[in-house]
Amino acid sequence: MLGLCTPGRRMTANLAIEDIGRGLHSSAIHLLRRVRTQDEALGVGPAQLSALSVVVFAGPISLNDLAKVELVKPPTMSRIIDALVKEGLVKREVNKTDRRAVVISATARGTSLMHEGRSRREQVLVELLKPLKKSDLECLAKAVEIITKIL
Questions:
Q1: Alpha helices, H only, the chain
Q2: pLDDT digits (tens, 9 = 90+) for 88-147
Q3: Is residue 1 scored above 50 in pLDDT?
Q4: In angstroms, rounded to a whole number, what is the distance separating the alpha carbons of residues 111 and 122?
Q5: Are 106 and 44 in contact (CB under 8 A)?
Q6: What is the rounded distance in angstroms from the CA atom of residue 43 to the CA atom of residue 113?
Q7: DSSP state of 9
Q8: Cα separation of 62 and 98, whole Å?
Q9: Furthest-apart CA pair in the chain: how many Å?
């Protein structure tokens, strides 16, 4: 399918949008599984890393908003945050404008751990990309632009 990125080449009628969606879905899942193997070295569970990622890269966030982003109930998120606080990766603070709410923010240690994890995952991707031809890399670069645009 990478040959489809060749300038002037047209997609054939038998390449249905459903097939592209199915292939992209499958590839994305396999790629994510491959890079997530690096997360084990960080010593933090997947649910905690996911929540920490949101806090580090999106900035301070309320517990309820974090629960919504992570698609879990607030009590579940509270337990996840409890574990992250215990590990010194995030801190809980009372919201200065609404004292009933709690704001979660990353500690320096949490930020460092998240950047280390991202670096490890990106290095796995770089190693996977190294053997590709320039034309395939150009095609993937274009695909990244397109995926970023639709998201």
A1: 17-36, 46-58, 63-69, 74-86, 108-129, 134-150
A2: 999 999 878 877 788 999 999 999 999 999 999 999 999 999 999 999 999 999 999 999
A3: no
A4: 16
A5: no
A6: 10
A7: -
A8: 11
A9: 60
